[in-house]
UniProtKB/TrEMBL annotation:
EC code: 4.2.3.153
Active site residues of this protein: 27 (schiff-base intermediate with substrate), 85 (proton acceptor)
Example GO molecular function: lyase activity
Pfam family of the protein (one): 4HFCP_synth
Organism whose genome encodes this protein: Candidatus Marsarchaeota G1 archaeon OSP_D
Protein name: (5-formylfuran-3-yl)methyl phosphate synthase
Keywords: Lyase, Schiff base
Domain of life: Archaea
Entry annotated with the keyword Lyase: yes
Catalysis performed (reactions): 2 D-glyceraldehyde 3-phosphate = 4-(hydroxymethyl)-2-furancarboxaldehyde phosphate + phosphate + 2 H2O
Function statement: Catalyzes the formation of 4-(hydroxymethyl)-2-furancarboxaldehyde phosphate (4-HFC-P) from two molecules of glyceraldehyde-3-P (GA-3-P).
């Protein structure tokens, strides 16, 4: 599992990489629930690190306009983003599929990967059922999936989707050759569950910010390093992620 840290500027990006983040995800928390950052911020972050540091761009919640979204996707690719995430709010499945297909066309000639994003709490916002994300990614020829949350009130991914459902989706995606990422106010106490689900990427922000405040805090290298150590310990088997399950079922 790779560690993805969401950042809003070059200073946070440097802290994330210093702490051991594998992926720097550039976004803008000041626009809507999750928004896109400015091209010059993305350019600065991309140019600050070697190519092996994965710099992803979050388009966040996109409008139901295929031309507008595909142009934004093209912009992310022109800025040499490693991947670009496209998520939907108040969008039906067929519209989302059309937008992703046009976005796929916009990436022709680039190495940037297209990630189809859905939200575990989408039912609160009129969004797409997150259980359709693998189908959506396959039909649009996307390169991977992300399941995140929009609600930022203390609840997280596992308040909206259970371990069994997420594990099945991750396995289905992997069997289809898609990369898999889970995010949504994740905390270290969720890492045993995440390790059992085994996505390719685990995304965090609040857990690595000052005072765990994702909006007003800043990403701190020491917090990133701590989260990375906890993740690696579970990957290496230094922490038994199945023991709690055995106690419950035993």
């Amino acid at each position: 599992m790779l560690l993805m840290v969401s950042v809003q500027d070059i200073n946070e990006a440097r802290q994330a990489v210093m702490g051991g983040a594998d992926i720097v995800d550039v976004k803008n928390l000041k626009e809507m629930l999750v928004g896109s950052n400015f091209p010059w911020v993305i350019r600065e972050v991309r140019q600050a690190f070697p190519r092996e540091i994965h710099v992803s761009v979050t388009l966040g919640v996109v409008p139901n306009q295929a031309g507008t979204v595909s142009l934004a996707v093209y912009g992310a690719a022109a800025l040499n983003a490693t991947s670009v995430k496209v998520g939907f709010l108040n969008t039906d499945y067929e519209t989302a599929l059309r937008i992703l297909k046009e976005s796929r066309k916009a990436l022709e000639g680039f190495e940037t990967k297209l990630i189809a994003a859905t939200f575990a709490d989408s039912h609160l916002y009129g969004g797409i059922d997150p259980k359709l994300v693998v189908k959506l990614a396959k039909e649009s020829a996307s390169d991977g999936i992300l399941i995140d949350t929009l609600t930022k009130d203390g609840r997280n991914l596992f308040d909206f989707m259970d371990e069994q459902t997420l594990r099945a989706l991750v396995l289905e995606a992997k069997e289809s050759g898609l990369s898999t990422a889970l995010s949504g106010a994740l905390r270290i106490e969720n890492f045993d569950t995440l390790a059992r689900i085994n996505p390719d990427i685990v995304g965090v922000r609040g857990a690595v910010c000052t005072n765990h405040d994702r909006f007003n805090g800043q990403v701190e290298a020491s917090a990133v390093a701590r989260v990375k150590r906890e993740l690696v310990a579970r990957m290496r088997g230094e922490i038994d992620v199945w023991s709690s399950v055995a106690r419950i079922t035993g």
